[in-house]
Design goal:
Blueprint: H1 3-27, E1 85-89, E2 93-98, E3 103-115, E4 118-128, E5 133-142, E6 155-156, E7 160-162, E8 169-178, E9 181-190, E10 195-204, E11 210-220, E12 235-240, E13 244-248, H2 250-255, E14 259-263, E15 266-270, E16 274-280, E17 285-293, E18 300-307, E19 310-312, E20 317-328, H3 331-337, H4 351-368, H5 371-385, H6 387-414, H7 418-432, H8 441-459, H9 483-498, H10 505-522, H11 527-555
Parallel strand pairs: 1-7
Antiparallel strand pairs: 1-2, 2-3, 3-4, 4-5, 5-11, 6-8, 8-9, 9-10, 10-20, 11-18, 11-19, 12-13, 12-15, 14-17, 15-16, 16-20, 17-18
Length: about 550
């Protein structure tokens, strides 16, 4: 098996993967958007909850259909007219908390605009619209329905909170009461951080003991748009010390409900570059559950945590505490928050290779301050590590190139008699001391590393809207003038000229077409990924050219 055949096989696999992803984007499961009665419109003044009454079952078989209705201190029943939105501004987020359920209904990331052209249009990671939703909910459940769920109404002290200069923490309390049970739900926002503490404090002033649990859940719809060329996972995941990191995609939720006892861990909804997560106390026992509601348009998917019951005797107080993270997949910060949370930076099966490659990329960036230059330095490092293996491969290819005219003569001599042709080829290889696998094995060893580097670059939020040079203002989007894809295509064509030509004319024509095919596909790839391939190709050409010249000079 010569190197050209290996390259052809790898190229066809890669193109096949892209075609499969394109098919999934065009014909795979898509979100259903309906304009019929049953879809819910959202007005700016008062947003309605498009999510159904999805509540986890309480311990001891409490039905999820019961919804508690809160009453104010004046004894009047809260109504939809009491629904308000509390706005919270910190240095890094702008959030809207709904007094109905104390739900985090919107959260915008101030340091992550939707595009470079609109720096003040911040990415709204948490949102609630008529055709799309991604919201974080929490509430309490008890036997007597004396607990606020995410459908109950709270009272807000203020409707506007602004983190002042020099202020490190901003507390947003919401209050609910019924039948002598008072609950204060508080959000704690911190300066420069996407980690938010959430507490439920219960004061039992009734004559009966209160026994209940806390639930925390993330609900979202399927994404309205998916990448046509670059697949990244969007869906729910969970982690604990027993099962480790597990994905539960939207189709899995429809097929089977998850119910899993867990100690510590966390749950999350992840997408490219960003995530939302609930992190309980790492010593707490919880039930991880999922709920798929396909009877709504659009369908909603929930992953949640339900705590063990907490007993609050009459005249006593109790508290539930959790944390939520809503923000970018910054590896260092995720590692600090909870074990395994950094796995949401989804490198796939090659995580053990991608993580150290990303660490090295980040280390280089710390020196040069430019992510494009860091990619170049990382590619140089990887090529240096595999220099000897590449040298072995290129030497084998140079020898194959040297004997290619004699191979062509053998093909003409034996015609379609493949048995004699193969015997003659093996004799030639033996005489010239050529190992036909010598060009394949070193490259096959390197393939997993290069794939891991591909995923490290694809999953790095640091490349989002990161400039390189001149016309490349964002390494996470395609080259606007297609300079890098064209250079990459040219470099592939040059590499083919240095390789021994395939003996099969059909294979040779396919190989000649590959640079054009790859140029077309890579034209829509993020510039950071194309930059990596360009630098890798240029270095390979330089190394292969030097070795080929040495072989040819020695033969004279």
């Amino acid at each position: 098996m010569d190197n050209s055949r290996l390259f052809l096989f790898a190229a066809l696999v890669f193109v096949g993967m892209l075609m499969w992803q394109q098919w999934q984007a065009d014909y795979g499961p898509q979100p259903v958007v309906s304009s019929e009665a049953g879809s819910v419109e959202v007005s700016p003044g008062q947003q309605s909850d498009i999510i159904t009454d999805d509540l986890p079952d309480q311990a001891e078989g409490i039905s999820g259909s019961a919804v508690a209705t809160g009453t104010g201190d004046d004894g009047t029943t809260a109504t939809a007219a009491a629904q308000q939105l509390v706005r919270v501004d910190t240095d890094v987020v702008q959030a809207l908390i709904d007094t109905r359920g104390g739900v985090l209904r919107s959260l915008k990331l101030k340091k992550y605009p939707t595009s470079l052209e609109q720096p003040d249009d911040w990415l709204e990671l948490v949102h609630s619209d008529s055709d799309s939703a991604h919201i974080l909910q929490s509430g309490l459940r008890d036997k007597e329905s004396r607990a606020p769920t995410h459908h109950s109404f709270y009272r807000a002290e203020r409707l506007q909170y602004q983190m002042a200069d020099g202020q490190d923490e901003l507390v947003v309390p919401l209050r609910w009461s019924q039948d002598g049970i008072e609950v204060t739900k508080s959000y704690y926002f911190r300066r420069g951080d996407y980690l938010i503490d959430v507490d439920h404090r219960i004061v039992n002033q009734s004559e009966q003991d209160w026994l209940g649990s806390e639930y925390r859940q993330i609900q979202r719809t399927r994404p309205l748009e998916t990448s046509r060329l670059l697949y990244t996972y969007t869906g729910s995941v969970y982690y604990n010390e027993v099962t480790k990191y597990e994905k539960v995609d939207f189709d899995d939720m429809e097929d089977e409900q998850v119910k899993l006892d867990s100690n510590g861990g966390w749950i999350a909804m992840i997408q490219h570059y960003f995530l939302s997560a609930w992190i309980p106390g790492q010593e707490d026992q919880n039930l991880i559950y999922t709920i798929a509601n396909t009877k709504r348009n659009p369908s909603t998917y929930t992953i949640g945590l339900r705590s063990q019951n907490l007993l609050v005797p009459s005249g006593a107080e109790g508290e539930f505490s959790s944390q939520m993270f809503v923000g970018p997949k910054i590896v260092k910060r995720l590692e600090e928050i909870s074990p395994g949370l950094d796995l949401t930076v989804d490198y796939g099966v090659l995580t053990f290779l991608s993580k150290p490659l990303y660490w090295l990329l980040d280390w280089y960036h710390g020196f040069v301050g430019n992510w494009g230059v860091a990619i170049i330095l990382l590619t140089l490092t990887v090529k240096a590590v595999f220099y000897k293996l590449s040298e072995t491969s290129y030497r084998s290819m140079a020898k194959m190139r040297k004997v290619s005219p004699r191979l062509k003569t053998l093909k003409e001599r034996y015609g379609d008699d493949r048995q004699k042709m193969n015997q003659a080829m093996m004799e030639l290889y033996k005489t010239e001391k050529i190992n036909p696998m010598g060009g394949c094995l070193p490259i096959m060893v390197q393939i997993p590393v290069f794939i891991a580097l591909y995923w490290a670059l694809l999953e790095s939020v640091d490349l989002r809207q990161a400039p390189f040079i001149f016309w490349i203002k964002d390494l996470s989007v395609m080259d606007p003038f297609f300079v890098l894809p064209i250079v990459m295509g040219v470099s592939m064509a040059i590499q083919q000229k240095l390789n021994p030509p395939p003996p099969d004319p059909i294979q040779a024509k396919i190989m000649m077409a590959l640079p054009f095919v790859f140029t077309f596909f890579f034209a829509f790839f993020p510039a950071g990924l194309v930059l990596y391939w360009v630098i890798n190709n240029v270095l390979s050409i330089a190394q292969q050219w030097v070795i080929t010249k040495r072989i040819e000079a020695a033969a004279k």
